[in-house]
Design brief:
70 residues, mainly alpha, 2 helices, 77% helix, 0% strand, elongated
Length: 70
């Protein structure tokens, strides 16, 4: 069994899972903005920016961001 290959597939899985979770969070944030009464144009701009960020993170191979202490 090729350990390097298996590790690579695990990284792909982590990135896919992160992207799915991030996409879900974007949807929840957009819904939150709608419930707060933000303008449709503003919400569209937020959504476009966040989806672009999601693509960039995926292209960079970033599977997780560090949590900052609150």
């Amino acid at each position: 069994r090729d350990v390097e290959r298996s590790r690579g597939l695990g990284d792909v899985y982590k990135r896919q899972r992160f992207c799915f979770m991030f996409a879900r969070d974007v949807e929840m944030f957009i819904e939150y903005c709608e419930n707060k009464g933000l303008a449709t144009k503003t919400i569209g701009s937020y959504e476009q920016t966040l989806r672009l960020l999601m693509l960039w993170l995926d292209e960079q191979g970033i599977a997780q961001t560090e949590k900052s202490p609150m």
